[in-house]
């Protein structure tokens, strides 16, 4: 895939994944026309501009705006070829206490991105999802499931517009803002780590793994797919042992809306799920293309009926030693 002379816009572009995508795109596609970072936090934009100065990256643009503002998005998407939608309100417990705010950003924002993309000449939209959108028990997950449904359905309302909408869904991003490993690393000095439940597990993906998924969807999506990576799980107690083996564990109980294990594919999804090798994909129940053509093109294999993909039943695990290596590689090179 070439992005030569393409203009790309990332909503929520000042977040961990937005910055990783920015770095990846400039390193691998130096002939892009423009890379626009859209976010509502001026301070984060100011800080990111220090990391990616225009003197070194002349194609970068910083655009203040909120995905809740449809008119602003329509203006921002002028001349844009590809939109990566990473903006979201993502903290589970904050969404439980501020439901209307979460709905406005995660659902209203998704609708606005779709509307603005259809109003302009955007060719490709890749929306970021989360494992919490699968069989959600919290508001954050429910809003992201709704967002996923909106982006999948957008392929059926586009008419003759050749635009493609697709979704990438993955688990906890190692080292991202607000994630457990940096949190534990900060808590290390206190000699005590708060853990909600000793049996908790999570899927684990690196920032680069998340970037690779977005690039895969950008290149290969036909429109309407939800892409899911094959990634390992970890046990929360193993993370604690890897980060701070000397610390005492304090069990504090599950927070509002939290699960013990996360899922990325439910047994109900299995009827539309295909194995693509490196990834799974959930195809839309009403696709706008022939399933047989998709299967032939990607050597896709239908998963067995009743298949589900759960962090607690995973066949691949990161143990204490591999977690230490991953932390050193992806979070803090000075970690020991």
Description:
The chain has 336 residues and is α/β, with parallel strands linked by helices. It is built from eleven helices and 17 strands. It has helices at 16-28, 42-51, 70-76, 92-97, 99-119, 139-153, 180-187, 207-220, 236-243, 291-298, 320-330; strands spanning 7-11, 34-39, 60-64, 82-85, 124-128, 164-168, 172-173, 192-195, 201-205, 226-229, 233-235, 248-251, 263-265, 273-275, 279-282, 301-302, 309-310. A ten-stranded mixed β-sheet has the order 3-2-1-4-5-6-10-15-14-16, with helices on both faces. Strands 7-9-11 form a three-stranded mixed β-sheet. Helix 6 links the parallel strand 5 (124-128) and strand 6. Helix 1 crosses helix 8. It is globular.
Quick synopsis:
By secondary structure, the protein is α/β, with parallel strands linked by helices.
**Class from helix and strand fractions:** alpha/beta
Radius of gyration: 20 Å
Indicate the proportion of strand residues.
Answer: 15-25%
How can the largest sheet be summarized? Answer: 10 strands, mixed
Cα distance spanning the termini: 39 Å
N-to-C series of helices and strands: EHEHEHEHHEHEEHEEHEEHEEEEHEEH
Q: Which whole number gives the mean pLDDT?
A: 94
E-strand count: 17
Tell me the number of helical segments per DSSP (H or I, 4 or more residues long): 11
Give the spatial strand order of the biggest sheet: 3-2-1-4-5-6-10-15-14-16
Choose one word for the global shape.
globular
Percent of residues in helices comes to 25-40%
Ranges with pLDDT <50 over ≥5 residues?
A: none
């Amino acid at each position: 895939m070439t992005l030569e002379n393409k203009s790309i816009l990332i909503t929520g572009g000042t977040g961990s994944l937005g910055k990783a995508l920015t770095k990846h795109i400039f390193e691998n596609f130096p002939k892009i026309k423009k890379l626009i970072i859209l976010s509502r936090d001026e301070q984060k934009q100011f800080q990111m501009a220090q990391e990616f100065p225009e003197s070194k990256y002349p194609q970068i643009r910083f655009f203040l705006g909120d995905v809740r503002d449809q008119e602003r998005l329509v203006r921002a998407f002028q001349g844009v070829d590809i939109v990566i939608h990473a903006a979201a309100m993502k903290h589970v417990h904050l969404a439980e206490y501020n439901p209307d705010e979460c709905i406005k950003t995660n659902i209203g924002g998704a609708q606005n991105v779709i509307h603005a993309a259809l109003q302009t000449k955007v060719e490709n939209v890749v929306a970021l999802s989360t494992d919490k959108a699968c069989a959600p028990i919290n508001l954050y997950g429910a809003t992201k499931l709704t967002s996923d449904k909106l982006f999948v359905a957008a392929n059926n309302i586009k008419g003759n517009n050749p635009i493609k909408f697709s979704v990438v869904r993955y688990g906890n991003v190692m080292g991202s803002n607000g994630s457990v490993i940096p949190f534990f690393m900060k808590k290390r000095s206190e000699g005590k780590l708060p853990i909600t439940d000793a049996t908790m597990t999570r899927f684990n993906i690196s920032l680069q793994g998340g970037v690779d998924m977005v690039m895969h969807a950008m290149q290969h999506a036909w429109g309407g797919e939800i892409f899911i990576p094959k990634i390992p799980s970890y046990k929360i107690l193993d993370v604690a042992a890897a980060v701070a083996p000397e610390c005492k564990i304090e069990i504090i109980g599950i927070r509002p809306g939290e699960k013990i294990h996360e899922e990325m594919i439910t047994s109900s999804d299995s009827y539309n799920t295909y194995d693509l090798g490196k990834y799974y994909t959930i195809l839309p129940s009403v696709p706008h293309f022939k399933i047989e053509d998709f299967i032939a093109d990607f050597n896709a294999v239908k998963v067995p009926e009743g298949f589900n993909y759960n962090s607690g039943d995973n066949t691949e695990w990161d143990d204490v030693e591999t977690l230490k290596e991953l932390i050193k590689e992806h979070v803090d090179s000075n970690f020991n």
